[in-house]
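User: Could you check the structure of this?
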Amino acid sequence: MTEGNNFPDKRTTSAIWSDGLGRAGIRSGQALLVITLAWVILWGMTRVPLVMIPVMIALILASAISPLVRWLTGRRWPKALAVAASFVGILAVFGGVITGIVFLIREQSKELAAKFTAGIDQLHQFLNYGPFKVSDEQLRSLGDSIQRFFTSSSFGAEALTGARTVGEILAGLVLMAVILFFFLKDGEKIRTFLFGFLPASHRAKAHLAAERSAAVLGGYVRGTALIAVVNGLIIGTVLAILGVPLALPLGVFVFIGGFIPIVGSTAAGTLAVGVALISNGPVTSLIVLAVLIAANQLEHHFLQPVLMGKVLNIHGLAILLALAIGTMLAGVIGALLAVPTAAVGWTAIKTWTGRGEAASAGTFPADGTAA
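Assistant: Sure, the predicted structure tokens are below.
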């Protein structure tokens, strides 16, 4: 306190915040403000999932498809025609896959029903006389519990909720298709408009961060798609050789599950193991399980390092944490979007702060294309 003054000395106050503890307090306050802002943004995004999820999926697909648009425009295609051809092509691929799955399931439904009955008998014999014996009384008790669930009011409520969810998914798919078209057509204009709100001194760095993030996102999607194709082909081929019904649809499910890192292909492969158990018996299911484990090892120890080593430079623990947070916030869709969102966020942070500038510049040139 200075003489004749009731206010603290400014030099004393400055000294409080200039030592190590004071600087730590300032940084802690800044970190809390940033975390609070991030939480508010995430909370707001989870309030409108029917809008945000189609936007994010369209952004991911646009990053993966934009190299095709640039390639076509480089071959003197008009921009509108290149966008339309790429857009129609991706919709035709998705529509063809879904239509093929539906027709295959309808065509093989009778065969699956017949094998299902025989498989249930084999499973019953295995449970009665296998290493872990289960009595008929225990099986009947389990069957009664399942029947009570399907006839309960809670199952009816879940069915109504499921019908509403299907409607929301269809609406989201339509919205995603529209947003994807405009991202492909006017992506640069949209980005320039949004970055126009930033100070002029930050716009160049924001554009660079966006270009590198788009390169990372597109590379991640393309690498993940290649890995998922390999897994789907391996599982589908093995199922077809073993005579398991619905081999192609199950291979497609494994392909789709491959877009969820670490756990997706395993979870989808479990469905294939279950179908093999019910339709062809325990021996076939064990063979499918062994192939599934081998395919997962091939993915983790060879395909991911080769195809995505330069793109997804994130530790496995960070991927697991991102998956957990994404699943908690948005379920399966959150798990699908968690890892690419984390990869893009980390790339943007590194570019904005200048961290690893030389490595980033060597991997992702200023034009946003992978080296």
